[in-house]
Specification:
The complex is a heterodimer of chains A (696) and B (262).
Chain A lengths: L1 H11 L18 H4 L9 E10 L4 E11 L6 E7 L11 H6 L2 E2 L2 E2 L7 E15 L5 E5 L3 E2 L1 E4 L5 E10 L4 E11 L8 E3 L2 E4 L5 E2 L1 E3 L3 E3 L14 E10 L3 E4 L2 E8 L2 E11 L4 E4 L2 E8 L2 E8 L3 H22 L6 E6 L10 E3 L2 E3 L14 E3 L4 H16 L8 H20 L4 E5 L2 E4 H8 L23 H20 L1 H15 L6 H12 L4 E4 L5 E3 L2 H10 L5 E11 L5 E4 L5 E4 L17 E10 L6 E7 L4 E6 L5 E7 L3 E6 L15 E3 L9 H20 L2
Parallel strand pairs in A: 1-17, 23-24, 24-26
Antiparallel strand pairs in A: 1-2, 2-11, 3-10, 3-14, 4-5, 6-7, 6-8, 6-11, 9-10, 12-13, 13-21, 15-16, 17-20, 18-21, 19-20, 22-23, 25-26, 27-28, 28-29, 30-31, 32-35, 33-34, 35-38, 36-37, 36-39, 39-40
Helix pairs in contact in A: 4-5, 4-6, 5-6, 6-8, 7-8, 8-9, 9-10
Chain B lengths: L1 H7 L2 H28 L12 H11 L1 H33 L5 H10 L1 H24 L5 H16 L1 H13 L10 H13 L1 H27 L6 H34 L1
Helix pairs in contact in B: 1-11, 2-4, 2-11, 3-4, 4-5, 4-6, 6-7, 6-8, 8-9, 8-10, 8-11, 10-11
Classes of the chains: A alpha+beta (696), B mainly alpha (262).
C-alpha cells in the first residue's frame, strides 16, 4: 500500500527534463523575443532532398539554391564549397595538414569522404518586381557548365548570362555524398551518422573583393550567407534524427522514415541520425532545447541542458536575443568522438565529460570538458552562427571572441573567476587556465591571421586564436572596467547580427565606447593613467611579442646619513662620524635609517600601465602605477623597509607570459609558502607514504 | 595479545625503523629541493593559495622539475621494497626476543635474498588478483561488486601469509625451503586454515592501508598547512607499530608451531 502510494506520488511529479517539449511551429521565435532579424540579410535559400543509404554510408541528394545578388556586381559565375572533398584523397589540403589525425582521433586510412556532383541545371533567373514578386527571365531548365578547382573543396558554376544587381538565380545540383568513417566532424560510426559539410554550399560575394569561397583547410570553418532551408530527409525507419531548424513533417513509408525540416536565416544545415540515441528536452522562454545522446549518458545530458539554460541567460543578457526557436545538442558516442565539439546553426555537437561518475567530488572535478564544450559550441550560435564573420580570414573573431564570451558566461553562472579544475580541494581558476596558455607558444604567430596560415603541427592555433585572444580581451576588460567593456561588446553584438562583421568593426565598437585613450585610474595628483587602445589592439592582435612583468629585486640598504669625509668651508677634508644608531646590521636598523629599493622590469614592446603593490615593515601597503616606455624601473623608498613587491596585485593581466615572477620578497625576509617549497614538502610526504605503503 | 607484547618489548626497534624511514623520506626528496632551488620561478610565493597554478606555471617554466619529482617517487617505490626486505630478517629476529644487536643486524643480511624471493612469489600472486579484478570490470554492476568483495577477501590473506612465510624462513622452522614456492604455498594454506590468524593479520594490514591512504589525502589536501609534514612523519610511528604487530603475529604463530613440533 505504502509502495503504491509512493509510486503514485513519484508519478505525479513530472521531471521537467523528461517531459518532452513540443516541436516549435515557427523556425524563429516570436517577434517580441527574437530581436532584430533583417530581411535584407537573406541571400541564399536551399531546398534539399536527401536520402540516407545506411548500407553504402552515403547520401543521395538534390539541392536547389536560390541566390540573390545584393551586390553592385554583374555575376557570371557562382562559387561553391564542397567541404566533404577535404576527405577525398590523401593529397587534399585538409588531409595533408592533418597527417591523418584530428584531436587525438586517427583516420581510418581506407575510409574516404567525397561530394560527387552529377549534374548542375539552371532553373530560373529573375528580377524582383516592384511588388516583390519575381519576374522570370529564363525558365527553361538548362544544364550548366561547372568546374572543380585544383583543390577539390571548392568549385565554380558558370552561368549563361550575368546575374545583375538585384536579380536572383536558381540552380539545381544533383549530388552524392560519400560519408567517411568519423574522425573529424562528419561521417558514420556503428549506426551513428553525423552528416555535416555534406552538400554544395555557396560562398559569399563581397562587393569589394568578389567571391569568398575558401579551400577547406584544417582550421577553416564557415563563411556563408544567410537564407531559409527546406530539407526533406529520407532515412531508414527506426532512426532518431536531429537537425538544424524545426521538424515540420514526419511520416513513415514502408521501411523508410520521411522528415521535413525548416530553418530560417541560417547559413548551414547539419543533421544526425542514429539508432542508439536517447533524447531529453527543456524549454527556455520559447526556445526548445533538445539533447540527443547515447543511452548510457543520461546524467551527462542533464548537465548539458543545465549548461545550455545558463548559457542562454548569459548570452541573451550580454549579446542580445537568440532569434531561433530551437537548439539541438548532440553528444556523439565515444566511437564517433571525432564528431564531438562542432557548431552548426541551431545544432551543435558536444563532448563527453571526462569527470568519471565514480570519482568523488572532493578528489577531482573539472569544467573543461563536457559542459564547457556545450557552452563553447553554443557560444558559436552567436559568434559565427548569427554574426557570420569570415572564419577563414579572421578565425579569432569567432573562436577567440567566443572563448572570451564563454569565460563571461562562467562568471555569470558561478561568480568571478570560478574554478575549472578542482583537485584534492586545490583549484585552478578559469583566468589562471588562460594565463597558463600564455606559456605555450611553440610558434609565436599573430592572432589576426587567416586560418590557413596555422599549421596543425605547430599546435599554435588554439593557443593563439582561442586563448591569446581571450587573454587580451579579458585583460582589456580588467583594465578599462567591466561595465564600459561589456557595453562595447554589446554594441558590437548588436551591430554584428546577421551582418558578416570584421575585426575592424569590433575594434571600432571598442573605440567608440571607450575612446582612443581610456582612463584606467586617476592619481591623487590629478594625473590620469591612460591606455593607448590602438597600440594595445595592434600589439595583441597583430603583434607576436610577449608581455611580461617581473620584480627583479627587492632590497633594503643603509640610507646615507652624511658619514665619511667631506670638505668644509675652508676646503679641508673633515670626517663626520657615523651615528652609532646607524652602524649596526642593516637588517636590524630602524626603518628611518633604511632606504627600500625595488627593481621592476617589463619584457616586450607593449607599453601598458600596471599597478605595483609595495608592502612595508610597518604593516603598511602602497600601490603605485608604472607606465611609460621604460623597460626597467627602480622605485626607492627613503626611511621605509620594503618587505615585498607585487606587480598587478589585482591580477588584471591575463595576457602575460608568466605570473610567478610578479612577486618577490626582500632578502632576509622569510616569504610565505612558495611553489618550490611546497613541492619539496609534498614529495617528501609522498615518499614517506610510498615507502610505508609499498612495504605492505 | 602475546604478539602485541612482543612489539612493546622492542621499543628501540620501532624507534630505529621510524628514524630510518623518516631520514630516507627526507633524503629521497633532496633532489627535488635542489632542482627547485636551481630554478627561479618556483621561488615565488604562492598567491592567494593558488597552488595548482603556481605548480603548473613552474612546470611549464622548468619541465625538468616535474621529471625530478617523478624520478623521486619511482625511486621511493624501489627503495620501499628494498627497505622492507632488508629489515625483515632483523625485525623477525628481534621480535623473536633476540636482543643481540649483531645477531639482528646479521639477520638483515643473511636472509635478504630468500625473503626477496618469497616477497616476489607473493607479488606474483597479488598481480594475479589485480588482473582478475580488472577482468571483473566486464561483469554487470551487482556481480562486479560481489566478485570484487570475494577477491578482496581472498587477497587479504596474502599479508598474514607473507609474514608467516618470512618468519618460517628466518626462524628456520619445519625445514621450509627458503627460496621455494612451496614455502609460499604452505603459508597460504596454513593461513587459510586459521581464520583467527587470517582475520587478525588482514585487519592489521587493512588498518595500515587505510591510515596510509588517509595520510596521503591529508598530505595533498592540507599541503599548505605548515604542520602537515610533521603529522605525516609522526604518523609513521603508528603505521610502523601496526606493521610490527603484523609481523609479531606471525612470529608468535611460528613460536607456537615450534613448540608443537618439539
Amino acid at each position: 500500500m505504502l509502495a503504491a502510494t509512493l509510486a503514485a506520488c513519484a508519478r505525479s511529479r513530472p521531471d521537467p527534463m523528461n517531459t518532452p517539449v513540443a516541436e516549435p511551429t515557427q523556425a524563429l521565435r516570436e517577434p517580441s523575443l527574437r530581436g532584430v532579424v533583417p530581411a535584407s540579410a537573406r541571400i541564399a535559400d536551399y531546398r534539399i532532398d536527401a536520402r540516407l543509404d545506411t548500407e553504402r554510408k552515403r547520401v543521395e541528394g538534390q539541392v536547389r539554391v536560390t541566390w540573390r545578388n545584393r551586390t553592385s556586381r554583374q555575376v557570371r559565375r557562382l562559387r561553391f564549397h564542397q567541404y566533404m572533398n577535404a576527405f577525398r584523397a590523401d593529397d587534399t589540403l585538409w588531409l595533408r595538414h592533418s597527417g591523418d589525425r584530428h584531436r587525438s582521433q586517427v583516420r581510418d586510412r581506407d575510409s574516404w569522404g567525397y561530394l560527387d556532383i552529377r549534374e548542375v541545371h539552371l532553373l530560373l533567373q529573375a528580377t524582383p518586381s516592384g511588388g516583390g514578386d519575381a519576374h522570370i527571365h529564363a525558365t527553361a531548365r538548362r544544364e550548366l557548365r561547372w568546374s572543380e578547382d585544383t583543390e577539390p573543396s571548392t568549385m565554380t558554376v558558370h552561368l549563361p548570362q550575368a546575374v545583375a544587381p538585384g536579380q536572383s538565380v536558381s540552380i539545381e545540383i544533383d549530388f552524392i555524398t560519400q560519408l567517411p568513417r568519423v574522425f573529424a566532424r562528419t561521417g558514420h560510426s556503428r549506426g551513428f551518422f553525423l552528416v555535416a559539410h555534406w552538400y554544395p554550399k555557396l560562398g559569399v560575394l563581397d562587393d569589394a573583393q568578389g567571391w569568398r569561397a575558401h579551400p577547406f583547410s584544417y582550421y577553416s570553418e564557415f563563411y556563408a550567407d544567410f537564407g531559409d532551408y527546406d530539407i526533406h530527409l529520407d532515412v531508414p525507419r527506426g532512426f532518431k534524427v536531429g537537425a538544424t531548424g524545426i521538424r515540420i513533417e514526419d511520416s513513415e513509408d514502408g521501411d523508410r522514415r520521411k522528415l521535413r525540416y525548416h530553418a530560417e536565416m541560417v547559413h548551414d544545415f547539419a543533421w544526425t541520425a542514429g539508432t542508439e540515441l536517447d533524447e531529453q528536452s527543456a524549454d527556455y522562454n520559447g526556445i526548445r532545447i533538445r539533447t540527443l545522446f547515447s543511452s548510457s549518458h543520461g546524467d551527462a545530458a542533464r548537465q548539458h541542458i543545465d549548461t545550455q539554460l545558463a548559457a542562454l541567460a548569459s548570452y541573451e543578457a550580454r549579446f542580445g536575443p537568440y532569434p531561433w526557436s530551437t537548439i539541438t545538442i548532440v553528444e556523439p558516442p565515444e566511437d564517433a568522438a571525432g564528431a564531438q565539439g562542432m557548431e552548426y546553426p541551431t545544432f551543435f555537437t558536444t563532448s563527453t565529460g571526462r569527470n568519471p561518475a565514480w570519482m568523488p567530488d572532493w578528489l577531482f572535478q573539472e569544467r573543461i570538458t563536457g559542459s564547457f564544450t556545450t557552452l563553447h559550441e553554443f557560444g558559436h550560435q552567436y559568434f559565427q552562427g548569427m554574426f557570420a564573420s569570415d572564419e577563414d580570414r579572421e578565425p579569432w573573431l569567432d573562436e577567440g571572441i567566443n572563448t572570451t564570451s564563454n569565460v563571461l558566461a562562467l562568471y555569470d553562472r558561478y561568480g568571478a573567476d570560478p574554478w575549472v579544475v578542482r583537485l584534492f580541494g586545490h583549484t585552478l581558476s578559469v583566468d589562471d587556465g588562460i594565463r597558463l596558455a600564455m606559456h605555450e607558444y611553440i610558434a609565436p604567430r599573430a592572432v589576426d591571421r587567416p586560418a590557413s596560415e596555422f599549421h596543425p603541427s605547430t599546435r599554435a592555433f588554439h593557443r593563439v586564436v582561442y586563448r591569446k585572444t581571450a587573454a587580451a580581451m579579458l585583460t582589456l576588460r580588467n583594465l578599462v572596467g567591466h561595465a564600459p567593456w561589456d557595453r562595447a561588446l554589446r554594441a558590437y553584438a548588436a551591430q554584428a547580427r546577421f551582418s558578416h562583421p570584421t575585426g575592424s568593426d569590433l575594434e571600432q565598437a571598442f573605440g567608440d565606447e571607450l575612446g582612443t585613450h581610456p582612463l584606467l585610474a586617476r592619481l591623487e595628483s590629478g594625473e590620469g593613467i591612460r591606455l593607448d587602445l590602438e597600440h594595445y589592439f595592434d600589439h595583441v592582435l597583430r603583434g607576436t611579442g610577449p608581455l611580461n612583468f617581473a620584480v627583479r629585486g627587492v632590497d633594503n640598504i643603509r640610507r646615507p646619513v652624511g658619514a665619511g669625509w667631506h670638505r668644509d668651508a675652508a676646503g679641508s677634508l673633515v670626517q663626520t662620524e657615523r651615528d652609532p644608531q646607524t652602524a649596526g646590521d642593516v637588517n636590524e636598523l630602524a626603518p628611518e635609517h633604511i632606504e627600500g629599493r625595488v627593481v621592476v622590469a617589463r619584457e616586450g614592446d607593449l607599453e601598458v600601465p600596471v599597478e605595483i603593490e609595495f608592502e612595508f615593515s610597518e604593516g603598511l601597503n602602497e600601490v603605485r602605477w608604472w607606465s611609460g616606455p621604460s623597460r626597467l624601473e627602480v622605485f626607492t623608498f627613503p626611511r621605509r623597509r620594503v618587505v615585498s613587491a607585487r606587480i598587478d596585485p589585482d591580477r588584471r593581466y591575463l595576457f602575460e607570459l608568466r605570473r610567478n615572477d610578479n612577486i618577490r620578497y626582500a632578502k632576509h625576509t622569510r616569504p610565505p609558502a612558495t611553489a618550490g617549497s611546497q613541492l619539496h614538502k609534498w614529495t617528501e610526504m609522498i615518499s614517506l607514504l610510498l615507502i610505508k605503503g609499498a612495504s605492505l | 595479545m602475546k604478539s602485541l607484547r612482543r612489539v612493546w618489548a622492542a621499543p628501540g626497534l620501532l624507534a630505529v625503523i621510524w628514524v630510518l624511514h623518516t631520514t630516507l623520506g627526507h633524503v629521497l626528496a633532496l633532489p627535488v629541493r635542489a632542482a627547485v632551488r636551481g630554478a627561479h620561478a618556483p621561488s615565488a610565493p604562492i598567491e592567494e593559495e593558488r597552488l595548482l597554478f603556481a605548480l603548473l606555471e613552474s612546470f611549464a617554466e622548468q619541465p625538468a622539475i616535474l621529471g625530478v619529482v617523478e624520478s623521486t617517487l619511482l625511486l621511493s617505490l624501489l627503495v620501499a621494497v628494498a627497505f622492507d626486505v632488508v629489515l625483515a630478517g632483523g625485525v623477525i629476529t628481534r621480535l623473536h626476543r633476540s636482543t643481540a644487536p649483531m645477531k639482528i643486524c646479521s639477520a638483515c643480511g643473511r636472509w635478504f635474498l630468500p625473503l626477496l624471493v618469497q616477497t616476489l612469489w607473493f607479488a606474483l600472486l597479488r598481480a594475479a588478483f589485480v588482473v582478475l579484478a580488472i577482468l571483473v570490470f566486464e561483469f554487470p554492476p551487482l556481480a562486479r561488486a560481489f566478485l570484487w568483495l570475494v577477491l578482496a577477501c581472498l587477497a587479504s590473506g596474502t599479508w598474514p601469509a607473507l609474514q608467516l612465510a618470512r618468519c618460517r624462513v628466518v626462524l628456520e622452522i619445519g625445514g621450509h625451503r627458503p627460496y621455494h614456492v612451496t614455502t609460499t604455498w604452505r603459508a597460504l594454506r596454513d593461513t587459510s586454515r586459521d581464520a583467527v590468524y587470517w582475520a587478525g593479520g588482514a585487519s592489521l594490514a587493512l588498518s595500515q592501508l587505510i591510515l596510509v591512504a588517509a595520510l596521503l589525502i591529508h598530505a595533498t589536501v592540507e599541503i599548505l598547512e605548515p604542520a602537515t609534514l610533521w603529522i605525516t612523519r609522526i604518523s609513521g610511528l603508528v603505521t610502523w607499530a601496526l606493521s610490527l604487530w603484523l609481523t609479531a603475529l606471525a612470529v608468535q604463530r611460528c613460536a607456537e608451531e615450534s613448540r608443537c613440533t618439539t
